[in-house]
From TrEMBL:
Statement: the UniProt record of this protein carries the keyword Nucleotide-binding: no
Recorded GO MF terms: cysteine-S-conjugate beta-lyase activity; pyridoxal phosphate binding
CDD domains reported in the protein's UniProt record: CGS_like
Name of the protein this chain belongs to: Cystathionine beta-lyase
Family matches, as InterPro entries: Cys/Met-Metab_PyrdxlP-dep_enz (IPR000277), Cys_b_lyase_bac (IPR006233), PyrdxlP-dep_Trfase (IPR015424), PyrdxlP-dep_Trfase_major (IPR015421), PyrdxlP-dep_Trfase_small (IPR015422)
Family to which the UniProt record says this protein belongs: Belongs to the trans-sulfuration enzymes family.
Length: 392
């Protein structure tokens, strides 16, 4: 399937109907114990437990189908599934770090990524250093002989800084560091990090891949056999794996990813354009907008934009903000994103920075444009702004 489009790959990768009585979707295997017919077969499986069907935690036809599909979509060697996006991040970091190592993590990283690095890796002897996401080739000055990992997230999922991934990976390779990236925002449809030198591309499949706000799932796509082996060992040792029903939902979501992302992108850009003209809005943080500081990098490296972006509104009393948010009819307030539903969330970027400073005094609202009509979403926000002004 090397010559097919990404849209076609989404439909056909990870499927083998003729091996399953002609059934279109791979079956769901609920499994813990795997039985072996002979002692020879048992011992052969023990010699290479990372391959084949050995024990439920090691993989089943359901997980193999999901991993095959995502790896094909992203152009990777192979993939490893986990129980959540955070589990995928933790697994990737544990696979390539040990006591005495130094790692570099973008200052715009997902909050739980920061906490795992600071509260789990650091106490075990890994030195964690956060860096300015705009550093680009300047990361050379931060690299050390013992730098084992450079962790990227582009765009950042709160303030959407776009990183110069090729420049960072080129510098990291010179000291032998493994580069990994949280690619959840773009999905493999809009950015293929492995083509830019990244070793491990990580997705919270909970978000756009599942796409229906009903499953927890993570996946790591590895550039080569060596990186896959390290990640697979880390996953099996820690016992993290997606449940069979969630893996099935991930496969189901993949099939419609392209058409859903097209609508997410269109709606988010429509909302961003409308919001940019609102008097209450100080800034729109959306990489696909020409006025965004990282737009040139986004345009160079990305094939599209998803439904997640932020706005900065003028400071208002909490009661006025509550008047806006509490009575929205279509935008729910809640964590996560990537599903069919629209979401809005007040955030505090300043509380999650250490290498850089977030100094804008405005209120940052993160929005996810779902699959509702953009006109209806705009009306909902318009009514919210009206309530906010009335409460001032």
């Amino acid at each position: 399937m090397k010559d097919t489009s990404k849209e076609t790959t989404l439909i056909h990768a990870g499927r083998n109907p003729h091996a399953n009585h002609g059934i279109v979707n791979p079956p769901v295997y609920h499994c813990s114990t795997v039985l072996f017919p002979t002692l020879d077969a048992l011992e052969e499986s023990d010699r290479n437990p990372l391959e084949g069907i050995h024990y439920g935690r090691m993989g089943t036809p359901t997980s193999f189908a999901f991993e095959e599909a995502v790896a094909a979509l992203e152009g990777g060697y192979r993939a490893v599934n986990t129980a959540s996006g955070l589990a995928a991040i933790a697994t990737g970091l544990m696979a390539f770090t040990k006591a005495g190592d130094h790692i570099l993590v973008t200052d715009s990283a997902y909050g739980p990524t920061r906490r795992f690095c600071k509260e789990t890796l650091a106490p075990y002897g890994v030195e964690v250093e956060f860096f300015d996401p705009a550093v680009g080739a300047g990361i050379e000055a931060l690299l050390r002989p013992n730098t084992s990992v450079v962790f990227l997230e582009s765009p950042g999922s709160l303030t959407f800084e776009v990183q110069d991934v090729p420049a960072i990976t080129a510098a990291a390779k010179r000291v032998g560091a493994t580069v990994m990236i949280d690619n959840t925002w773009a999905t493999p449809l809009f950015f293929r990090p492995l083509e830019h030198g990244v070793d491990v591309s990580i997705h919270s499949a909970t978000k756009y891949i599942v796409g229906h706000a009903d499953a927890m799932l993570g996946v790591l796509v590895c550039r080569d056999e060596a990186s896959w082996t390290a990640v697979k060992k880390a996953a099996t040792r820690s016992g993290t794996t997606g449940g069979p029903d969630d893996l099935f939902l991930g496969l189901r979501g993949l099939r419609t990813l392209a058409v859903r992302l097209k609508q997410h992108q269109e709606s988010a850009l429509a909302l961003a354009g409308w919001l940019a003209a609102r008097p209450e809005v100080r800034r729109v943080l959306h990489p696909a907008r020409p006025d965004f500081p990282g737009h040139a990098l986004w345009k160079r490296d990305f094939g599209g934009s998803s439904g997640l972006f932020s706005i900065v509104i003028d400071p208002v009393p909490r009661a006025a903000l509550a008047a806006m948010l509490d009575h929205l009819e279509l935008f729910g307030m809640g964590y996560s994103w990537g599903g069919f539903e629209s979401l809005i969330l007040p955030t505090r970027p300043a509380a999650m920075r250490s290498a850089t400073r977030w100094t804008d005094p405005g209120i940052v609202l993160r929005l996810h444009a779902g699959l509702e009509s953009p006109d209806d979403l705009i009306r909902d926000l318009e009514h919210g702004f009206r309530r906010m002004r009335a409460a001032l």
